[in-house]
Amino acid sequence: MKTIVSVIGTRPQFIKVAPIAYSLHKRYHHILIHTGQHYDYQMSRTFFKELDIPKPEKNLGIASTLHGEQTGRMLIRLEQVLLKEKPNLVIIYGDTNSTLAGALAASKLHIPVAHIEAGMRSYNKMMPEEQNRIIADHLSDICFCSSSISANNLRKENIKRNIYIVGDVMLDTLRYAVKKTRNDAAFLKSHKLALRGYILVTVHRAGNVDHKERLASIVNALNQCNKKVVFPVHPRTRNNLKKFKLLPRLHKRNILLLEPVSYMNMLKLEKSAEMILTDSGGVQKEAYFLKTPCVTLREETEWVETVKNGWNTLVGTNTKTIVKIISGLKKPSHYLPLYGNGKASAKITNVINRFL
């Protein structure tokens, strides 16, 4: 039996690997390596349990630190594991430091690399994620793209071979999760949340939450909002809200601050929201899948299709702009299934079968 290694390390990557793990396990020895990039043990365990993902065979325990140090430590540990396991293929996901380290470690050992979510571009090279995805794509032997736009991005960079438009694996996972929790409204009822009766907010990117002025602008916009606001607060964000003394501005009757929620409960919040305010790439996609209008707290996005089709609006972090967009946002009347039919993992497995 041939061996395939999946390198993961963040919660969005747990979501992406779930359908792949299920699809590969009958034919391959599939090893999950968790770098530990998202180091919250309880949250990681919850995600794996909810999505029926096998427990990772290796947990490298490399927690958050400076980008270079974190990636370097991952590279050292991954190389050791790959030399021992001798896999026939390494699969990397998305655009994190775990993605970059997996691509580098495998390619230096001449192990073929498959990149899921290849070709995504925001064209902001200041973003660590943009740097990671560009390098990962150019080191990969197989590029699995979510859309035709991402495939075209690769061709523009002179990547010509083994490009496959398969759709988005997060849609596979989302459809499974929605079906599993279809009749479960307990979480929303426990917080007295009505359908389309609130705005859902997620903010976690370092470019937003590590800068006092940008975070303050976002907080001020929420403070001025008259609608019900539901805000699951990322640990990094909460720490900086306290550090910058911004947390008291969010103590309003219409603002509900929550601890981070599970994947299933997050989907319930996204599906029932009037709109979503976020700086997360994954949440932008989930909003599109669930047909919930999205307002993105960034100047650019790698998920350009969501903007072109009217379901996602880029606003940056200016308070007045955010408030204006929130007050006037309308749900589009048209919708296109841009990211496949929820069977990306099967298409990916078929390509891998032929490759190996």
Automatic annotation (TrEMBL):
Protein name per Swiss-Prot or TrEMBL: UDP-N-acetylglucosamine 2-epimerase
Domain of life of the source: Bacteria
CDD domains noted in UniProt: GTB_UDP-GlcNAc_2-Epimerase
Sorted UniProt keywords: Isomerase
One GO MF term: isomerase activity
Pfam family, one: Epimerase_2
Species for this entry: Candidatus Kerfeldbacteria bacterium RIFCSPLOWO2_01_FULL_48_11
Listed NCBIfam families: wecB
Family: Belongs to the UDP-N-acetylglucosamine 2-epimerase family.
Record-linked InterPro entries: UDP_GlcNAc_Epimerase_2_dom (IPR003331), WecB-like (IPR029767)
Domain UDP-N-acetylglucosamine 2-epimerase per the UniProt entry, residue ranges: 25-352
